[in-house]
């Protein structure tokens, strides 16, 4: 947590009101996301007790595992719902060849899963891992099987780890990026309490509304119980309501009392609906708040990359369809780690260039700086193969902490396309002088571009240019020793990762 975030959290605690931490949205929110609220069986891993899902606020679909039964029916119904949603995205567009990318087809839209909190993202990953090797029954359609559901859930969970991807998002993460509350980050994982801080009822503060909401045994300001948003159930709910109902069902089943069995089954459905419905309503309320924020331009670029990945994976499923490996080999793991590190650095740089709050936060950590231009050499040149090349230079004086090295490439919100390379770092007085060289949009010696060169006295904010971060070179699989996962690995899913551009 940066000093700025800490300061805002302390101010929120003192004023009992959530503080603005941004004025924009860093992720694309689709017109028709699928809200996915899972509840897990207590004491087991990836064994759904119930799932509430849907694309319309007024039409939640509740799927429930029979009391003390196997979740086979629930999983098949879940597969039907999720895969039908994914299959609804069929329209494609033709993209012409550009740079090093060949001409290709890309889906115009893609699915998006929203969950209540970050623990639910982990649950999606575990559920996908548990299901993706499930063999489809004979004479059934593999494209709508439980195993295919597991593959898609794994796909979403894998991309949730990819910084900037919007396939699978936790609403608490999105809200906490926009607002900072006076409670801990762990408490921010309770969706109802977080919303109470952000949008309390009239006449009360965020703190008091959150205190009323977070007690699972007492009605909140809206008169309803707000249980933890899952995937784990509230222990008091288990002991006081769920376990007695399951015990009564067992007794009825042992006695062969079919009327009581049906009655207890209906009671279980009503109980779980009552448990999940407040979170369902809170989730759509949170989505409404988030939709009021303007998206940063880079969100659309990243969503276009997501649509490329969706198109590639859908094509892979139709041509090969094998599930993802249980674990990565050494080559795939190294490539994946490098890709995630690169994506995180570029994502943070784009956010800083398009969000003043995030730029200020990076200044407190030394990943950005602000200063005054004290000198400009607009006619500076360097030798080139075809003659001198124009590379204007300027001196920037800053009192911010400087944690840069020579050669680092910087950019600023004034014109993100203009890149400035650090050529010298000189302490002076209580600050630092940076000698910067403009490397893009300079024009030529005969036709220089003056709009790319700041003037003396200009105030600049700079951070790392997103283009500065490049993927390290990896040897081909054929040139990788077998001890590090060389040529014997031939799963086609690895090829998708190797060719994917962050």
How would you describe this protein?
Residues 471-502 are annotated as: Disordered. The chain is of the alpha+beta class. The chain folds into 2 domains: 3-228 and 293-324, no CATH class; 365-468, Elongation Factor Tu (Ef-tu), domain 3 (Beta Barrel), CATH 2.40.30. Helices cover 41% and strands 16% of the residues. The protein contains 13 helices and 17 strands. The protein has helices spanning 3-15, 72-87, 118-131, 146-160, 171-178, 191-198, 206-214, 235-255, 258-291, 297-319, 330-354, 356-365, 492-499; strands spanning 19-20, 34-40, 48-54, 61-64, 92-95, 104-107, 113-115, 168-170, 179-180, 368-377, 381-382, 389-390, 393-398, 409-411, 420-428, 431-438, 459-464. It has a 6-stranded antiparallel beta barrel with strand order 10-13-16-15-14-17. A 5-stranded mixed β-sheet has the order 4-3-2-7-8, with helices on both faces. Strands 1-9 form a two-stranded antiparallel ribbon. Helix 3 runs antiparallel to helix 4, helix 5 runs parallel beside helix 9 (258-291) and helix 6 packs antiparallel against helix 7 (206-214). The longest helix has 34 residues, at 258-291. The two termini are 26 Å apart.
Short description:
Residues 471-502 are annotated as: Disordered. By secondary structure, this protein is α+β, with helices and mostly antiparallel strands.
